[in-house]
Amino acid sequence: MDFPENLKYTKTHEWIAVQGAKAKVGVTEHAQKEISDVVFVELPKQGQAVQQSKPAAVVESVKAAFDIYAPVSGKITGANKALESNPGLINQSPYVDGWIFELEISHPAELNALMSAAQYREMVLQAPKH
Amino acid sequence: MLISQDDRLSFEKSKSGRRAVTLPSARFSGESPTKAVSSGLLRQTSIGFPELSESDIVRHFINLSRKNFSVDTHFYPLGSCTMKYNPKVNEWAARNEKFTALHPLQEESTAQGMMEILWELEGGLKEISGMDRFTLQPAAGAHGELTGMMLVRAYHASRGETKRTKVLVPDSSHGTNPASAALFGFHVVEIKSDSRGRVDLEDLKQHLDDHVACLMLTNPNTLGLFEKNILEITKLVHQHGGLLYYDGANLNPLLGIARPGDMGFDIIHINLHKTFSTPHGGGGPGAGPVGVKKHLIPFLPGPLVEKAGGSYRWADAGPQSIGRVKLFHGNIGVMVRAYVYLKMLGKEGLRKVSEAAILNANYMKECLKDTFTVATQGPCMHEFVLSIKSLGAQGVHAGDVGKRLLDFGFHAPTVHFPLVVPEALMIEPTETESRETLDLFIEAMKAIADEAVSDPEKVKTAPHTLPVRRPNDVLAARKPILSYRDQLREKMLLAEAAA
Amino acid sequence: MPYLSLTAEEKKAMFDRIGVRSFDELTGDIPASLRDPKISLPAGLSELEIQDLVAKLGQKNTTVKGALSFLGAGSYDHFIPAAVFDIVGRQEFSTAYTPYQPEASQGTLQAIYEYQSLMVELTGLDVSNASHYDGATSLAEAALVALKQTDRSKLLIARSVHPHYRQTIRTYLAGTPYQIEEINFDAVGNFKREELLSRLDATVAGVIFQTPNFLGVMENLEGVSEKIHANGSLMILTANPLSLGLFKSPGEWGADIAAGEGQPLGLSMNFGGPYLGYFVTSQALMRRIPGRLAGLTEDADGKRAFCLTLQAREQHIRRERAGSNICSNQALCALAACVYMTLLGKKGIREIAEINWDRANYLRSKISSLKNYEVDPSQTIFNEFRVRSNKPFPKIQEKLMAQGIFPGVALEPFYPELKDHFLVCATETKSKEDLDRFVEALERC
User: Fold this and answer.
1) Domains of chain B by start residue, with CATH
2) Could you tell me if the ipTM is greater than 0.90?
């Protein structure tokens, strides 16, 4: 399983790629496997304010609908429109083509609470398997 | 072949100019609506209904019916669904034009027979459940739960206790419980189950405070066990000012044996389409009457049937009522069936129903316990839960076992529920199945257990004998085609793309 | 005891297999104080006795077939083709479970899909679900969808919407932060347009109308959806589905959701239920639709197949985060409606609407010539209209009932200002003689 080093991670299996004041957010490879085939993504609206650890988007599979939590607070500056016609991108390329939204970070200090790739890898690999 | 392979829609069989129903040609008003009515109000678009003859249509639907499993053709060991036999006399009564041709707003004096049925049914439900009054309005179990949650809110509000916003729900509960509570603002808190699927008393105590509005409970629980500590649970919740809601989905093993009202429950819904043998209809209509103890009667939706002297009337709801939850009086056709069933069983019959339901479940559990892992120890009530984990079958899931059962002529059990048991198969035989049927089912389960190890592909790709095999639900959800209109649109897009 | 098959010998063998001697050993978890409750119920009856009892109870009812009935107000006496009863009576449909196992339920699933397809055609909207409990609850669900979709707090409802529907919506929203405001109707029964326009503000999530409305009037909704949409709100319409054979569809009026009562589509009145709540929306709301939907797909071998779809947000999967708590639909009622609409076909649906219009208009014009009654012939109606009597309506009702006539539904209990107004309904079931007899009886009152 892939855990890119340049990303930060949440306990709820989102990743965040910080580029200056902005950041892209998606779900991890581990998460996409658990979700199974994504059939629909409800993207946040442009300009919408999101709060750290609060739902910002919804990813649906046939099994369930999963809330995607904002890793940090901020304002939505973009969303991956390609997911509207091809939600399976989240399964095929969770870290690149399957990004979900982009936000402008309002409290950069919140990033400190997130996990590094190593920490997240440890959390995922230690979790009991069903 | 026995079942037609023609899977075309009625729309695709349509031929312009064909007719089924003929209607009177006489007109009395001497006017034509197209002339008399302003064109701004008239429909301008055509209605793309199919055009078929009556024999085409009858054959179309009868062939469809043959692509269904049903209680009248198959055994349905569906846990928590109580798929018992639906007696024919129920249907005979419900078809009677003396009931079907009654208008809900006709004068009470002209519908006394119907109102007597409703009164008597309510009386029977009160006796069986130990509650003091029922509303017959709720249309289904989930609708009953919703009504129950409204009653909880209204009750606490009437006492000025608006801070009671927390509803406790065990993690093994039916999905409707948390959904019903959350729908209108209650904060749902899950209570842990212990290893036997029972409410973890310590966890319950930790969550009890003066914010608790209600505890929702199914008893027996979804693992098929009676909550041994029920009296302590209800006492604890009452001590903290909360109410107790009984989800009647699993009432079938308690008829004449124990009553939710005596256990301390304040509110209950009863699924007439489960315990009272009314047919499921492929997903409804059911009925979910809600019963309450005295202190909650003022909050019930109205009107309620009242008996005065020898006659019946509708009594309007009082000022504290939560208000109407449905149009008119409820799913009356379902009530007629449940009434007939109740009359037929009588006092002794009720108990026999529950005893046979419990005996059948324990027998099956005993016969299957060496092949599968039973989720609980000791006797069960009307249902039990198996896990297929111990089979050690590569990549075979509980759902696959369910699909393979279809090939053996049995409907799948409830699969992957309750969530607290991995790879769960939840089995409820009901009281109406014969021992021979149970034995055949047990044999099939054992055969599949063997297959899951010796030939897992066969199980994973089942069923192999039905009109279709594993419809692609991912495709269905990614590109929803939900009507014939969608099909036509899709076809046009494809044609355009090709051009 | 009927419906049980275990013999005494079998029971004993089963107890032996389990390893217990008596039934009580199986229920040891039930506290002693709860056991063997005193239940006061009579002994069971044989089927013969039941049939006798049921027949006697039936005799105590006067049905709308036994009387001459002009009752409507949300439940209608219509002709139902015999084939509807036969097909709905097929036990493979009636005793089947919810189609969660699609391989064992292609019959039910295709029938639901065809029902959805027919409702899309009839309403002129895009996506139909597999049905709700009834018109009132369906409309309440539509109201919830509007509140969630717009993230706003207020609903406007025409006061001419069926009183039970309005009450149900109020019950559903009681104790929530949402508000409901009503838009009154004018003297002839149309909703007040100025009142609507003055109340459309940034808090309005949706506006609900009924057509024909509870007073029988076909609402003129010209230009209304444009105003509502310009305000960012949704338009919800509840229409008598049979009227759509003749009158403008919700789609043509620009509605976002059509939600209402499907009983006129081949269901008996049944003293009020079971009925069928239809629920059809625009494409934009597809993923907000509560309840079940059947979709078309392919199976593992590439064959056409149907399955339930868009269920990820439903209660059995999402528990407390679900969009609705609905579990069952009214599948068998939806089947009845599906068969009924298929039997009518493209031409029949228009004809049946025309005949209803004809009967009601004939009756209204006859009553308009009576001395002691007033009707407003200027209003467009479908199969129902309002009559005002110069004499107290309860007296008239009493006299007519003595002659075996149910004259209609009194409006005063629903609208206090409409004293001695009553709602008269005439469907295709009424012959010319029936209508003339009613008019003569009214005249004699």
Assistant:
1) 10-65 (no CATH), 89-345 (3.40.640.10)
2) yes
